[in-house]
């Protein structure tokens, strides 16, 4: 097991030595390495068992730092940066040579984010290095929103988890980039499309579901510890799975009576932001309870609903 603590100095020291440290952010916990140290970055891929073609996000503490590692920020993305940073937004920007190619899997752009968490802000200021940090889960498994999730999943592979308590957003960052003059959203996340479009007008979605395992083989390698999750109308699904022990994930009140070993509520008041906050913890808990299958609803397409639906779809049996 890793040590879970709040010693920023210790985290700085380990990261400077090329070790990995799990860090808190407002979205999910990250598995951080010094982004300028190729060997340390390699350890991130190895520890997560993540394919080398899947690039990492770098985390810095302010806009001046961003400019050390990326070329000029296009105007529309700058509007978003000023509005939503620090926060759950990642920008794809033309990369400077200061960032090793391994971080971006050889791509010409680097993904950058200024996280909104006091402990990680303090860490970034102190260490004065960009930290490459994917979510601190084995590749393909549920993202961690609590230090204990990290410890359960990667505790035997890393030495230190910086404790920042439960994450305040609970869903990964929204990823935005440019194609010509157009802003493209590459991942739905903690900033809703409505809030982005309020600042800069219409954006285009390019959400790639290719990370979703489609074959049983992939399911086995990436989702082995997880029981099957089905997404749809939970009333209908519970009839289909009537002969199995099920746990139910709900969103708001439901008037139907469904047999289940356990029920989890994403948000009793049907608030998608509250649902995002609870989503990954509920998936972790449902994975560990005594049910055989987990049934989850489709959320409304407003606020963080689309981002939650995206995560549920990826985690589900299709
Ligand atoms: O909220 C978050 O973004 C969390 C916290 C820790 O910051 N991080 C996170 O990282 O979710 P990760 O590695 O689980 O997801 C990052 C995704 C990659 O899978 C990839 O799709 C995209 O960001 N990405 C990173 N760098 C990219 C690049 N240079 N070009 C295109 N996509 C990139
Ligand atoms: Mg991830």
Strand content: 15-25%
Question: So, the CATH homologous superfamily of the largest domain?
Answer: DHBP synthase
Global geometry: globular
- The helix count comes to 11
Strand arrangement in the largest pleated sheet = 1-8-2-3-7-4-6-5-9-10-11
- The helix content, as a percent range, equals 25-40%
Identify every distinct bound molecule in the structure, by name, code or SMILES: threonylcarbamoyladenylate, magnesium ion
Instruction: Work out the count of structural domains.
Output: 2
Amino- and carboxy-terminal Cα gap: 34 Å
By secondary-structure content and strand pairing, the structural class works out as alpha/beta
Mind describing the biggest β-sheet? 11 strands, mixed
- Computed over alpha carbons, the radius of gyration is 19 Å
Number of separate strands: 15
Q: Which stretches of 5+ consecutive residues score pLDDT under 50? A: 211-225
Report the CATH architecture of the largest domain: Alpha-Beta Complex
* Name of the top-level CATH class of the largest domain: Alpha Beta
- CATH level-3 fold name of the largest domain: DHBP synthase
Helix and strand sequence:
EHEEHEHHEEHEHEEEHEHEHEEHEH
Average of pLDDT:
92
